[in-house]
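Class prep. Protein, please:
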Amino acid sequence: MQKEYLEEFKTYLSFEKNYSANTVKGYESDITSFLIWLKSDCLAVDLNKLREYIHFIQQFNYKKNTILRKISSIRGFYKYLNREKIIAANPADALIAPKKGKPLPKFLTDDEMEKILDNVSISTPAGFRNKAILELLWATGMRISELSGLNFGDLELDNNEIRVFGKGAKERIVLVSNRAKRFLIQYIQSARSLIPCSNAIKIDTSDSSPVFINKTGYRIQNKTIRNAINEVVDRIQLPKHVTPHVFRHSFATHLIENGADLRVVQELLGHASISNTQIYTHVSMQHLKNVYNTSHPHA
């Protein structure tokens, strides 16, 4: 009968929930493992028995996500049995899963960041644009969408400030280093007008015009920025997966490591909650532990 219940549950997932074949197969594998361990009637299971199973699988070297998936599968199975009135109550209702850990953000060291920035090819106008973009990402911690959305009216370079619009169109001011400012000004004054592939394209610099443009003269797309990063990372053979958000993580991590106040970092990143910024203190502590473990003779 348990096999029959499982087959009916799979049919429900496929046709009523419209889950993919791979997802259904995952549910089947998780529930089959549970039933093999159970060695008794699955309809007679109570909450304590389910907790016993969770304790059992936690003894293995499963990743936390795998354990959470197995718990989710069991919950779904018993919810279905209860829905079909095969059982009077769902024993998995009160089953508490371990909290999913938040992965620490990946970041680049100072040397890695400088190696990337120093190896951006500026032999073409588009290359010089990419150089200005990467310098700006590193100097400000902007999101990629915030950078691609910049207009000339957002620049206050006399004060080393840029106005950006973050998530939910929330406005904030980011600060620009003199180095990034220098590359940005050179891009605007020299390279920007040379990027479009046609001389017939009018290059507008009004307040509502995009700062960074593509070869058609329109606003640069996020994909182009990602490609620029991938190109230089591949060329220097940096053994890390680097995304525009890694620039943002690196910006925040290095500020924290160098003593910046958490509230200041929160403001610069545009985080609505300080809890979102606090993760960088964990990254910094992990960095300190790594340095300690590799440097102290008794570590």
About this structure: The chain has two domains: 2-83, 110-295. Residues 161 and 175 are 5 Å apart (CA to CA). The chain has a mean pLDDT of 90.
